[in-house]
Amino acid sequence: MSEQKNGQSRRDFLLKTIAIAPAMAVGTAGIGALESRSVLAADSTRSAHSQARDYQPSWFTAEEFAFITAAVTQLIPKDERGPGALEAGVPEYIDRQMNTPYATGANWYMQGPFTPDVDKAFGYQLPLVPQQIYRLGIAEANHQSQQQYGKIFADLNAAQQVEFLKSLESGKVNFQQLPSKTFFSFLLQNTREGFFSDPIHGGNQGLVGWKLINFPGARADFMDWVERGERYPLPPVSIRGERS
After folding, report:
1. Using CA atoms, how far apart are residues 77 and 71, in angstroms rounded to an integer?
2. What is the pLDDT of residue 10?
């Protein structure tokens, strides 16, 4: 969200960060639950700028889901290069993550002492799991948005939403129960994951994230092309065999 000196767009910044923090490297604790229903036919006919499939959240409340939807729309917006996080179904991905062991911290060491002041050296240091981070963070964000703009976040215009997200990222918004920077970092990371993960987890619908970076996906073998210095010519394939 930070301004770039050369005026690059948020999507340009996103593409640059892939090299150092590839969202495909999602930990096993963060893998979403599989769905039995088939969506291959619907996804395969989606156009480049079509909407994500209809989805009703199973964990977030309606107000919380409205916040998630509005936030990811600004974090990875659609543009001339293709769909953004909203069109890729990232809100669905994040909601489905809230019903996994990742969200409850089942595989995390959660014993004290908790020393947030050393998190840069030792990593995450709060006694909160992702479910709590989202529930508390969204409530705090909407409260602060109401105080600053007179509206909750989802009701702000696009410019105000971007301004507010930048304030969260920089830690300028004062949350009472967790640092706003921590909440923003989880939101941004899960948005990246939802945009670039396999569609089986709810996001990257229509393989739009993979098409953006020309990632071949779950193809059995593409090693012959790794050192050619050429663009891979075939479209990506998902774990379930979906092709873009």
Report:
1. 10
2. 57
Which one-letter DSSP state was computed for residue 83? Answer: -
Q: What tens digit of pLDDT does each residue of 114-145 get?
A: 877 766 677 778 889 999 999 999 999 999 99
The pair of three-digit structure tokens given for residue 47, joined into one six-digit string? 């156009």
> Rounded CA gap, 147 and 73, in Å?
22
- How many domains are there within the chain? 1
Segments forming the whole domain that contains residue 142? 62-106+126-216
| The two three-digit tokens of residue 134, written as one number | 């989202």
pLDDT for res 19? 45
3-class SS at 194?
Answer: helix
Q: Is 160 among the domain residues?
A: yes
Q: Is 115 part of a structural domain of the chain?
A: no
How many other CB atoms are found less than 10 A from the CB of residue 192? 25
Q: If pLDDT is split at 50, 70 and 90, which confidence band does 15 have?
A: low
Residue 193, number of CB atoms within 10 A of its CB: 25
